[in-house]
Amino acid sequence: MFNLKERGTTVGREIVAGLTTFLAMTYILAVNPGMLGMTGMDAGSVFTATALSAAIATLVMGFVANLPVALAPGMGLNAFFTFTVCMGMGCSWQLALTAVLLEGVLFLILSFCGIREAIIKSIPENLKIAVSVGIGLFICLIGLANAGIVAGDTGTIIGFNNFNLSHASALLAVIGLIITIILYVCKVPGAILIGIAATTIIGIPMGVTVVPENFKPVSLPSKPLFFAFDFKGICMGANGFEFAVLGKFIVIFITFLFTDLFDTIGTLLGVAEQGNLKDKDGNVLNAKGALIADSVGTVVGACLGTSTVTSYVESSSGVAAGGRTGLAAIATAAMFLISLFFSPLFLLVPAAATAPALIFVGYLMMKSVTKIDFADPTEGIPAFITIMAMPFSYSISKGIMYGVITFVICKLVGKKVKDIPVVTWILAAIFIADIIFEAVK
């Protein structure tokens, strides 16, 4: 069913990969309820919705697309949901969920029609590789920041904290990284997963891994917020129908739409490049199925009561552990289902324990940079801009945006217009319009 032999993997390796991916992204089970809870949503219900939507979407990914990619409510998208839509624009969380639902339905239609797949195929080969490298640096930075290794208050724009007991989280992450490196160099199977577990245990005497008093690893899940939508709020204000209210909703809808679209595309390209999960033409294997899984996840997540579900860059840690098929995704989904009853146990894993895995994956994804044709400036410069923009803008979608625009500019100036696919022209126009809209709004 999963073509294990064809992709050079085993059942055991896939399960370890799935567990590794889960542990690398388990932080979302703690972060998402806390963040969406600021809008007035019940944190326990959001936890249940987060775990369930992640499990369902990841199961679809495993069975339909046969790719080792996990999904869950996306970081950044949940921040936009909370701080911009609800707290900034004054919208109810019910209206925000309505926007997420409609975005997911539209994505599902676009996925079945093959439009999202066409966008992926339109991205030039060197940019696809650059996306993978950029994501590697991006998730490396996430790991460094989560562990407190890097900070902005060190006297420079960004710098390393001192590795001492006053920065115990950073010190623990460095210890975990050393353990992971040693295990990997010694070719120990499951090096990244073992590194996470060992770091969590070492963090207990250091005070980083916090075990609560009267700790009980088992708990019953809360009821999710089923179908809590506000369709009237799309266009109805205090005085009935209002164009201003409708216009505000359209802005919210479009922002969710484009951020999710290109975050997902970037993640799929990065994971496919890292795991060599591409067809003979260099395209992502089963891309249509992967995009359908992403869309289904968003629709299901909205119905359960959580923000946009998207593909996770932390899937790269599972690929680094040997994951090559949908069986790894199914193992990850199973862990999300189990987490519904063992949430206290999974929430013990501190960010400092998953940070080494994210940092190490940065090295693994950096290796493909040698495939980029830097000798041709019309190829090398857009690739560099893509790689540079992702970590420094803290956004996969912005990295793709600036890379595509730069690609079109370089090809125009270099008199290589024939190298620009039609869909790439369209994407560049949309990206430029988005930049102008952000500048003048």
Offer a quick outline of the entry:
This protein has helices at residues 11-25, 28-36, 43-65, 77-86, 93-113, 115-122, 125-146, 168-185, 191-206, 243-275, 287-304, 315-320, 326-339, 343-346, 351-366, 377-393, 396-413, 422-440; strands at 71-73, 150-151, 159-160, 236-237, 240-241, 309-311. It has 441 residues and is mainly alpha-helical. It has a two-stranded antiparallel ribbon. A two-stranded antiparallel sheet has the order 2-3.
How is this structure best described in words?
- Helix content is 65%, strand content 3%.
- It is mainly α and 441 residues long.
- It starts with 10 loop residues before the first helix and ends with a helix.
- The radius of gyration is 21 Å and the shape is globular.
- The mean pLDDT is 88.
- The strands form three sheets. It has a two-stranded antiparallel ribbon with strand order 1-6.
- Overall average pLDDT: 88
Number of helices: 18
Strand order across the biggest sheet?
1-6
Structural class: mainly alpha
* Shape by Cα distribution: globular
Are there runs of 5+ residues with pLDDT below 50, and where?
A: none
First-last Cα distance: 50 Å
- From the alpha carbons, calculate the radius of gyration and give it in angstroms: 21 Å
How does the SSE layout of this entry go?
Elements: H1 11-25, H2 28-36, H3 43-65, E1 71-73, H4 77-86, H5 93-113, H6 115-122, H7 125-146, E2 150-151, E3 159-160, H8 168-185, H9 191-206, E4 236-237, E5 240-241, H10 243-275, H11 287-304, E6 309-311, H12 315-320, H13 326-339, H14 343-346, H15 351-366, H16 377-393, H17 396-413, H18 422-440
Antiparallel strand pairs: 1-6, 2-3, 4-5
Helix pairs in contact: 1-13, 2-3, 3-11, 3-13, 5-10, 5-11, 7-10, 7-15, 7-16, 7-17, 8-9, 8-15, 9-15, 10-17, 16-17, 17-18
